[in-house]
Write a structure and sequence with these properties.
Elements lengths: L4 E5 L3 E6 L6 E8 L6 E5 L8 E2 L5 E3 L5 E4 L2 E3 L3 H9 L5 E5 L12 H10 L1 E7 L3 E2 L4 E5 L2 E6 L4 E9 L5 E8 L4 H6 L5 E3 H9 L12 E3 L15 H14 L6 E8 L3 H14 L21 E3 L1
Parallel strand pairs: 2-19, 4-9, 11-18, 14-18, 16-17
Antiparallel strand pairs: 1-10, 2-3, 3-9, 4-5, 6-7, 7-8, 12-13, 13-18, 14-15
Helix pairs in contact: 1-2, 1-5, 5-6
Length: about 300
């Protein structure tokens, strides 16, 4: 079902958690925002900082996460929150956080979905614009590819393949319908392989990573005591990441996407190609001052 009006959240809500890569505790507040505002991130720990537009041209790094930045200020690991906002149909929100990275929580988007539902979703008077795929767009790199074709809904078919007995080849098809993000995608957690985790930690990354916020594999098995949430949890999480990155177009999208063995870097490259093909200007929206009123009724999720 398509919505023809923009939406924001009904009240401000806050949360706190650990950043996956930084390992730092961060507090985050989601605030209602006016129509045509979009999603913007404001670092409250940096005096006089400007709010960064969640826009594909503000992506400054895609190694192991999506990082956006502007004017020397950056926010990392935004993809899970962006996916939750997109999946819940929220167009306009100011995200305030007192650190360099969004909380990872359990490695999925489900805690963010609960937070957004706690805030409630409010319809606004402004008309919602959609980005409709008008002609095929293809981006390839080696055996990885993303193909977009016209469709009257947002659809994703994702395929992955890893040489591990508990992963192997997985594929999943998903369409954005009422509640489908929460049911089918939001609970899928980020995943990794123990040998890669140890290497990345030596590089100073995933300092906050643990079995509490990721599915981790050794050479043969899943190390998490409770195993998978879905038998194909890995490919579902890749769809979650793709949704979060695609949300950086700043518009809900109508089209079918066939994705194979991709990641944040190819997602980002695809967005630039997609928007250029669609005739959108390459310039990112400007950063905005941090003059926003905190709505009453602040709720929390830990």
């Amino acid at each position: 079902m398509l919505h023809f009006k923009q939406h924001t959240i009904g009240q401000s809500v806050w949360c706190s958690g650990v950043g996956l890569h930084s390992g730092l505790k961060v507090a985050m507040v989601l605030k209602p925002a006016p129509q045509d505002h979009g999603i913007r991130f404001l670092r409250t720990d940096l005096p006089d900082s400007l709010a960064i537009c969640a826009h594909y041209n503000n992506v400054i790094d895609t190694f192991q996460a999506t990082t956006i930045g502007s004017a020397g200020i950056a926010v990392s690991t935004v993809e899970h929150l962006m996916a939750a906002l997109y999946g819940c149909g929220v167009d306009n929100v100011l995200v305030e956080l007192n650190g360099p990275e969004a909380p990872i929580f359990d490695g999925s988007a489900a805690p963010y979905v609960r937070l957004i539902r706690k805030a409630t979703i409010r319809e606004q008077s402004g008309a919602r614009r959609y980005l409709a795929i008008r002609e095929p767009v293809v981006v390839k790199e080696g055996d990885s590819s993303i193909i977009a074709t016209p469709a009257d809904q947002f659809q994703v078919h994702y395929e992955i393949e890893f040489p591990h007995p508990r992963v192997g080849k997985q594929e999943y098809s998903w369409e954005l319908k009422n509640g489908s993000f929460g049911r089918e995608i939001a609970k899928a957690r980020t995943f990794g392989f123990l040998k890669d985790v140890l290497r990345l930690q030596q590089m100073g990354l995933i300092q906050g990573g643990s079995l509490a916020n990721a599915v981790v594999f050794d050479d043969k098995e899943v190390l998490n005591v409770n195993g998978f949430r879905y038998s194909d949890e890995c490919v579902r999480h890749k769809i979650l990441d793709f949704i979060g990155d695609l949300a950086l177009t700043g518009l809900p999208v109508l089209g079918k996407f066939e994705v194979r063995k991709a990641g944040h870097t190819l997602h980002s490259r695809f967005l630039a190609e997609l928007m250029d093909t669609q005739g959108y200007a390459a310039k990112a929206p400007v950063t905005m001052p941090s003059h926003y009123h905190l709505s009453p009724g602040l709720s929390a999720i830990a």
